[in-house]
Design brief:
Strand order of the largest sheet: 1-2-3-4-5-6-7
CATH topology: TIM Barrel
CATH class: Alpha Beta
Helix content: 25-40%
Cofactor: [4Fe-4S] cluster
Number of helices: 9
Shape: globular
Largest sheet: 7 strands, mixed
Number of domains: 1
Domain Radical SAM core: 14-234
Structural class: alpha/beta
Organism: Candidatus Bilamarchaeum dharawalense
Radius of gyration: 17 Å
Pfam family, one: Radical_SAM
Protein name: Radical SAM superfamily protein
CATH architecture: Alpha-Beta Barrel
Order of helices and strands: EEHHHEHEHEHHEHEH
Length: 234
Amino acid sequence: MSANMVYKFATPYDPKATVLYVNIVPRYFCTNSCRFCSRKDAIQGRPNIYEKKAGTNLWLPKAPMFEDVVRELEVRRTVETTEIAFVGLGEPLLQFELVRNIITRIGTDGFHGKVRIDTNGLVKCWRKNDPAQELQKAGLDEIRISVNAVGSDEYTSISRPKQRDAFEKLCEFVRDCIKNGIDTYLSFVVGFDDGEVKTRTAEEYQKFARILGVQEKNVIIRQYVPPLEQNLRS
């Protein structure tokens, strides 16, 4: 049984650990290199806030096989499981077909809880049809898209994407998710300032979310957490 592929942990919002987290991201890979992200600490083998919360190392040398993920879900899912969330230190939708097929299987296996994805929202940069529609048809209930900016130049500066049209594709995908009836959340980091880039206020992000069609109740504001080693030195 692989503890870093399907796992759970208690949080203040989920003290009974009823959410199962699915990690299918190989080698912490992502299309972005966000200035505030703890992924670079994980890549370098340093302590990081996400793996500390998860209670396990999330390194996968390669993307798992469909059958292996399904087997892990069958073993770890209980009657108390209320949600299955595709997450990870990296971008899960780089493994789009794997995620879509697992979501479909979750439904056929009779799971009646929520199915969620946390993503950087750039899937339209490499998936040329309608990924939001595919995910909705597979059975996706909720998506949380990390935005962290209100314009293209700002996004490029803070998220450092590999794609030139990343922000435009992200905004398209947000609207596609809403159009397809997926419960769509946008997340923004506040409180980050590295001397070159400073994040905006929560109010500014909420205003931009409304422009995209997302209500304030579906805006997640995340307070920046410095690297663990920096915390220890503070």
